[in-house]
Amino acid sequence: MAVIKNLINGKWVESASGKTLNSINPANIDEVVGVVPASSRPDVDKAVEAARNAFEKWRLTPAPKRGEILFRAAELISKNKEELGRLVTREMGKVLPEGLGDVQEAIDMAYYMAGEGRRLSGETVPSELPFKDCKSVRVPIGVFALITPWNFPTAIPAWKLFPALISGNTVVFKPSSYTPVAATRLVELIVEAGIPEGVLNLIHGAGEEIGEYLATHPGIDGVSFTGSTAVGEKLAKLCGGLDKEISCEMGGKNPIIVMEDAKLDLAVEGAIWGGFGTTGQRCTAASRLIVHEKIHDKFLEMFISAAKGLKLGDGLKSDTKVGPVINESQMKKVLGYIEIGKKEGAKLTLGGSARTEGGLKKGYFIEPTIFTEVKPKMRVAQEEIFGPVVSIIKARDISDAINIANGIPYGLSSSIYAQDVNYTAIAERDLDAGIVYINAPTIGAEIQLPFGGTKKSGLGRKEAGGRGGALDMFTKWKVIYRDYSGRLQKAQIDKE
Ligand code: UN1
Hints:
By secondary structure, the protein is of the alpha/beta class. The chain has two domains: 2-250 and 457-481, Aldehyde Dehydrogenase, Chain A, domain 1, CATH 3.40.605.10; 255-438, Aldehyde Dehydrogenase, Chain A, domain 2, CATH 3.40.309.10. The chain is built from 15 helices and 25 strands.
């Protein structure tokens, strides 16, 4: 069991109150993975102050030098990948190959953003006047609050930490109180890589206790949040009123469309991975399958038989395909949605219950669950469940399928399986989502392109790399005009 502390101004410290929280293995609730500080407002104040004090020096540290620290962090995380991946599985529950994938995504982001230290490019354009030049440069925003969820205990923190740091911001990082140990291990490795004191501060505690206080703190300039739509929208309202930058990655209700000409084996494999991978606990999870009526019954038969083969269990065991859900309240929420689905007339075709037999009795296990005969406006087809529950909806043709896909409050990820290029081209053009996959499921975005959604899936800037990605979240543009004529030149007025 790990005994974890907060990191404030380069020192590992307990919470001011001395109170603690336990982090529990969701596959075996007798196992305490770590004990962490239950921080309160005075701890937040200290962390914000440390980040403020460190900002000036970090801002002036050349970005390539900041990049070298990130590069060393990437090397250290790579070296410790196996240990970190196992920790992710023990603390969050996802199966080990996915725990390792989580860490790999953090490594990818560290290398990518380390490289950005030698780019961070702006524009140089000609002036309308002689002896004058004009350019735009990216500058850091200041002190960021980074608030992350439990479903990607190292990847999502890395999506925020590395772009924030390479851009010259200092940060106060608050990971989910359900996965604090993995987050701390990530931070330890960044410290080992040489991040200066106060630049990266880590504070543990319950979101209800310190989340809003941190995000709205007068010493915070910007907030990057990933979590539920309800919390994200609330924080965005509060921060907007305080003139703080805020970006939120939130929920999803992501569709896979399966057309009548799709390769069904491929579509079934993708739908299983997208729907039940990570126990459905991804904001990108494929929780809706929109299936053409001509192949609906055949697809269903194949999908159900594949889902029956998914073994529930501890993610560290090599034959486990679906791990537990994260905690008791999530378990109640998912089971509650299964009841809602039954009541509103969807047909429960597979699963639907918690499982407690044998090795499952100490964890939060729910069977892979399939609803069929789902109507597009039912709650199980509209609301994010965040568990191993997939709803299947019949569609008449491509335009019916696209309408159903878009007819939800979310727009994060989407997918189509089809051979006809005209179908896939229409899907590319018309699916209202931040990400569209062709012949691949809704999960598995790569870090070198922007990540984020439309409607209730995302507010503000996007995450990750590429044009329109996280550098836009963590920097602001400054424009510089330099006049070297030695006289007053008047733009728009001088004739020569
Ligand atoms: C999330 O579920 O919050 O595209 C992030 C994916 C992963 C990231 C998911 N790369 O599924």
